[in-house]
Amino acid sequence: MSSGRLSTTSYVVLGTIGLRGPSTPYDLKRAVGHSVGYFWSFPHAQLYSEPERLERMGLLEVETEQTGRRRKVYSLTDEGREAVRAWLAAPTHEHFEMRDIAEMKLFFNELGDSGNIVNLAREQIKQHEERISVYEDMQRRFGSEPKYARRMIPLRLGLEMERAALRFWSSIAEEF
Amino acid sequence: MSSGRLSTTSYVVLGTIGLRGPSTPYDLKRAVGHSVGYFWSFPHAQLYSEPERLERMGLLEVETEQTGRRRKVYSLTDEGREAVRAWLAAPTHEHFEMRDIAEMKLFFNELGDSGNIVNLAREQIKQHEERISVYEDMQRRFGSEPKYARRMIPLRLGLEMERAALRFWSSIAEEF
DNA sequence: ATCGCATCGTCTGTTTCGGACCATGGGCGA
DNA sequence: TCGCCCATGGTCCGAAACAGACGATGCGAT
User: Fold this and answer.
1) A107-126, pLDDT tens digit by residue?
2) Nearest residue on chain A to B38, judged by CA atoms?
3) B contacts of A114 (beta carbons < 8 Å)
4) Is B46 within 7 A of strand D by CB distance?
5) How far is B23 from B81, CA to CA, in rounded Å?
6) Contact at CB, A156 and B168, closer than 8 angstroms
7) Of residues B39, B18, B43, the one with CA closest to residue B29
8) Count of CB atoms situated within 10 Å of the CB of B137
9) Cβ-Cβ contacts under 8 Å for B21 (sequence gap 6 or more)
10) B15-71 pLDDT, tens per residue?
11) Phi, psi dihedrals of residue B131, rounded to the nearest 5°
């Protein structure tokens, strides 16, 4: 029951266990991979080490499977549940950070050949179109199930961002 | 002239020096702070240590000021300039990552009180409105100067993203 | 001349990151 | 029923990123 600060990673682990119920690190890795991982990626090694830390802090408890690989299954303790609730209730003054290599390259493009821009734009158009179709698929498949409806809300934000980016890069591709 | 991989930080340093000319780490910190730092932030300590690394790699050269604080002034070598050009010319398959705490909280909101959403939305509306006015200001001040015109292009993307986010959170605030 | 403070820079411990690499055991062919 | 393949599941490591406290320095006003 040691202490320490909780990072975003911590809340992703706690939150995901909260939503899915008792989970192994591998479960977390998969769940994160097709949910929040789309906009904020976490190295999988983190999803193995973080639960250990949270268990030491008393926010999770472990149980070892009795069969097969005897994997460790983590579940929320009352403290863990409370930590998530407190986090959700706390104000969020942070602004998002949009780490975008393409935008970087566009910013510095004067230092290279101007022909680079068109290729950059074309590739981004492709990326965003692909992503949009993934998101639309998710929306089609789960959007109507009441059980998942609330979790689909952030997807709308994701879609809007993708569409804004797609519009932008399309206009760049035309201009240059 | 050791070697090693170049990270995004490396290109930000090389690129910024390319745009501004010879710079001290402090110059870099300031320049980054009101340019790419808006969408991708770098701890300032990095902007002090990275130039050293790049100098060891032969991509930058140092000169020490003869007066005052005798600060180190870094400039691009031919190899450095070439490294940036190669980076700009290389394809970018990566998709942006949008690290957004608010979106995280929205995703996990079922685990807390539903009243949290409205507060979250309100705060985000404020954040995005503020950011939009900062960007619009930049556009007003530098948008017309031909010298900076090209560097202002990515700002349009930033603005579109902000406006998309603002629309999203406004709709959330209304729905809940 | 000195003091105040904006400018400028360093240091430290921790977490993140990417990716190579390792281990396990259930099912399938012989 | 053996064994071996390979998808599933997990560990490890070195390098970089990170936050933020703290330290230094010189210039301008009094």
Assistant:
1) 999 999 999 999 999 999 99
2) A97
3) none
4) yes
5) 15
6) yes
7) B43
8) 10
9) B75
10) 999 999 999 999 999 999 999 999 999 999 999 999 999 999 999 999 998 888 889
11) -65, -40
